[in-house]
Amino acid sequence: QICLSLVKLLFYLAHSPLGSIALLDFQPRQFVMVDGNLKVTDMDDASTEELSCKEDNDCTLDFPTKSFPLKCSMAGKCEGINEKKNLFNAYRYFFTYLLPHSAPPALQPLLSDILNATGDLRYGINETLRAFEKVLHLYKSGLYLQKRPLLLNDYISLQGFRTVEGEGHKCWPSYSHLGCLLSIHSAEEAAAICNSQLHCQSFIVTQHRTWTGRPLASFQSSWTDLVPDPNAVVYIKRSASSGERL
Questions:
Q1: How far apart are CA 214 and CA 197, in angstroms?
Q2: CATH (one of 1.10.10, 3.40.1350, 2.60.40, 1.10.510) for 1-144
Q3: Is 154 a catalytic residue?
Q4: Any coiled-coil ranges, and where (predicted)?
């Protein structure tokens, strides 16, 4: 969410009515999340000026660990230098820390492509935004899910119940530090996740949703303490419930 919102912001800056705008003091502390969108808190260090040049050798974009040769345009300006400066700063301050984590395994190669392409400045802001929107579409639609046997058949579902809240087994990534709370596309995906976890015996699907509209599921190592909850459904492994009375 943070990276996509940042890319949308940089897309606007690259195509603003004032021309391409560079954020000269590009640091995480210069941004804040407002209603799920990233905002710039200080525009004092923004500039629409692009570096003047006479030849391509005048257009080197330097960073502490990398340098990029750019083209000198017919108008005597280094082509796209503001856009590329913003994009590489987004890569080194945000993408490298946020993109490698939390995504479903099937989407991780696509995010790695974005990371590598922006780190080498092979993508401009237009290509980067399209790549992010493709990943978001796959994530929200569930099209990234691989065909597999119907694992949900191995579970008993109880509508209107949940387990008593408490510290359960932990997993990464989790929306709660007290247990294993993950976003899912469907109960079928949750069953696959539970099957992949050594201690998981049940999971609860709630009506709470993430910013993409995906429901949250809590994965549990037990299922015995059930309490009524009209807004939840608990799924229990048949193997775990065998011999017990529901």
A1: 21
A2: 1.10.510
A3: no
A4: none
Peptide bond between residue 173 and the one before it cis (omega within 30 degrees of 0): yes
Neighbours of 238 (CB within 10 A): 10
Pick the catalytic residue from 25, 42, 56, 58. Answer: 25
pLDDT at 62 over 60: yes
In angstroms, rounded to a whole number, what is the distance separating the alpha carbons of residues 16 and 241? 60
The CATH H-level (homologous superfamily) assignment of domain 152-242 is: Hepatocyte Growth Factor (3.50.4.10)
Tokens of 58: 């005048």
- The model's pLDDT over 66-100, given as tens digits with 9 standing for 90+, comes to 999 999 999 999 999 999 999 999 999 999 999 98
Tokens 């780190």 — which residue? 119
CB 192 within 8 A of CB 151: yes
Q: How many CA atoms lie within 13 A of 68 on its CB side?
A: 20
Q: pLDDT tens-digit profile of 207-229?
A: 999 999 999 999 988 777 788 99
Q: Which token pair is 75?
A: 């108008």
The rounded distance, in Å, linking the Cα atoms of 192 and 152 is 8
Residue 152 DSSP code? G
